[in-house]
Design goal:
Mean pLDDT: 80
Number of helices: 23
Shape: elongated
Strand content: under 5%
Radius of gyration: 28 Å
Strand order of the largest sheet: 2-1-5
Largest sheet: 3 strands, mixed
Helix content: 55-70%
């Protein structure tokens, strides 16, 4: 009796139905990109800031000073380090200590002190900001001794991603892809609105964590759905194009942020579209591959007939039964990913690949982004740079397979990092060119790992396996800023050397993975163990479940 892949070929592997579902779910990539990098604009530094004491505030009001006049006359000169994104002063003049018989003058308040030298004290919390866009930095005073709290907001988001990878990845394999996707979209929307109207920083952090949890659920689950609903020949297209929509989100976000003056407006603009995804309940089906693993062959066949009708195909009454695995349905666990030799090898290599991609990608983005130029233009250009990587993948991945481009992209990124570290400072154009080549290489590696990860795990473990392995990406995202800036304090080029070693080692390990070009998606762990053998096309032990055509 026909397998699911045979029935799918008859119903159409990438017809009108799949294209519609695919394009709708691709929009999730745009909103996930918004969430992933939004801190760049939510937490952008003000042009400058200073500490304001009570005497300075009263004096500024009495003298009708502009913000710049107040800063110049009542605040110490800023001593900003070159790497700081804003500049300000974390101390203030103690103007209250002036001799009571000498009034503070509008022309020169410091004249009331001997030698115009007023005592300097740490700021107690009254800050003044000059900025074109209102951000969480000025909302919650995330400057000076509290500057680390801005980094905490991104670390908390990545921790939410990591939590979502474990919890919602598990839930999607147990309860279904579509239901978890819809719950996640609703969760991102609700928690995002709470973040926008957070009354204090603790509430902001808590709900940003929850938004990360649900955000990971939307991205990973939609990726698995589109991978499972198309044929093997189309997996490489949908797997790469859906990530091009992630890049599209990076390109669009600077425009949204530029024309939205407050961080609350930006937060709402990137959050509210998630509620529209709830309409997908009526147009996006549950994954029929998942239904077969849960022994629900009748529902899977109903979806296939719906696919065939929309694609202008005809699924004859002969397709009244599908073969399904005779394995008992069990809840996925980490042990399932490492119990057998092939699964264990794939899991460990993929975990390292995810970790390396995140550390090198985010490290290079942060390193290239410290230019002191226009934040919006620089961010836009950084997104455009990623597009050639996706196009190169589409041109190579089906011709020569997944493994070689995956390894080559990591090695190119690694070599580019190592070469850039030792290039002389006197030729900046060459350093920029080589570093950009490294950025393209790691972008390709980051996009290929999604596809390879989904193709190397069986249907019974796919969502859980992809979510678990990609959790190392979230862990890498947490430590990447610390790795970059701590090592750069020792030697500016040391982070590049670490990035180069990680990427080069990853490129070598990737060559140990089995090639999945042209193979049907594995249904069971046994199928994964046979990958690379002459029997890789077989689907293990099967049995037939009779599906009455009258129930379809």
């Amino acid at each position: 009796m026909p397998t699911f892949d045979q029935a799918l070929r008859k119903a159409g592997e990438f017809g009108r139905f799949q294209r519609r579902v695919f394009l709708l779910l691709c929009l999730t990539g745009v909103t996930f990109a918004f969430l992933f990098v939004s801190v760049v604009f939510l937490g952008s530094q003000p042009d400058y800031y200073w500490c304001r004491g009570p005497s300075a505030a009263a004096l500024a009001e009495r003298c009708a000073w502009s913000p710049e006049e107040e800063r110049n006359r009542t605040a110490p000169a800023p001593r900003a380090a070159p790497e700081r994104r804003g500049h300000g002063q974390c101390q203030r003049y103690l103007l209250e200590a002036a001799n009571a018989s000498t009034a503070l003058g509008c022309a020169d308040p410091l004249a009331a002190f001997p030698n115009r030298s007023a005592p300097v004290v740490p700021c107690s919390g009254d800050w003044r900001y000059v900025q074109t866009h209102h951000t969480i930095v000025s909302e919650f005073d995330l400057v000076c001794v509290n500057a680390w709290m801005l980094d905490l907001t991104q670390a908390i988001l990545n921790f939410g991603f990591l939590t979502g990878a474990f919890t919602l990845g598990y839930a999607a394999d147990r309860y279904g892809r579509l239901v978890v996707y819809l719950i996640s979209c609703f969760g991102v929307g609700v928690t995002g609105v709470v973040v926008a109207f957070a009354p204090n920083f603790p509430v902001f952090v808590i709900f940003r964590f929850l938004q990360g949890v649900f955000g990971k659920g939307t991205w990973m689950t939609c990726f698995v759905i589109v991978t499972e609903i198309v044929g093997s020949k189309q997996r490489r297209i949908v797997g790469i194009v859906i990530q091009m929509f992630f890049t599209l989100g990076i390109i669009v976000l600077p425009g949204i942020a530029y024309f939205t003056p407050s961080w609350q407006g930006v937060q709402l603009a990137i959050t509210l579209p998630n509620f529209l995804f709830l309409l997908y309940y009526w147009v996006v089906p549950e994954s029929p591959r998942w239904l077969i693993t849960r022994k629900e062959g009748d529902r899977a066949l109903q979806i296939l007939r719906r696919v065939a009708k929309s694609n202008g195909k005809y699924l004859s009454p002969n397709y009244s039964e599908l073969t399904v695995t005779d394995e008992e349905v069990s809840n996925p666990s980490f042990l399932d990913l490492v119990r057998t030799p092939q699964m264990r090898k794939c899991t460990l290599i993929l975990m390292f690949a995810w970790f390396t991609s995140a550390v090198v990608y985010q490290g290079l983005v942060m390193r290239l982004g410290i230019t002191g130029g226009n934040l919006y233009i620089d961010f836009f250009i950084s997104g455009v740079v990623e597009l050639p990587g996706a196009l190169l993948i589409l041109l190579t991945i089906e011709r020569i397979g997944r493994r070689l481009p995956f390894a080559a992209s990591n090695i190119v990124a690694g070599v580019a990092c190592l070469v850039t570290a030792f290039l002389p400072e006197g030729i900046p154009w060459l350093r920029t060119t080589v570093a950009t080549l490294g950025r393209l290489g790691i972008t390709m590696a980051f996009e290929i790992v999604y596809l390879v990860n989904s193709e190397l795990y069986p249907t019974t473990l796919r969502n859980f396996g992809v979510s678990l392995c990609s959790g190392l990406c979230d862990f890498g995202g947490i430590i990447a800023p610390f790795l970059l800036f701590r090592l750069a304090a020792v030697w500016l080029e040391l982070p590049l050397i670490i990035f180069g070693i990680l990427a080069s080692v990853c490129g070598g390990l990737v060559m140990l993975l089995p090639e999945t070009k042209g193979l049907v998606l594995p249904e069971t762990v046994d199928d994964v163990e046979k990958l690379g053998s002459s029997h890789a096309h077989q689907c293990g032990r099967k049995k037939k479940i009779q599906v009455s055509s009258s129930n379809v």
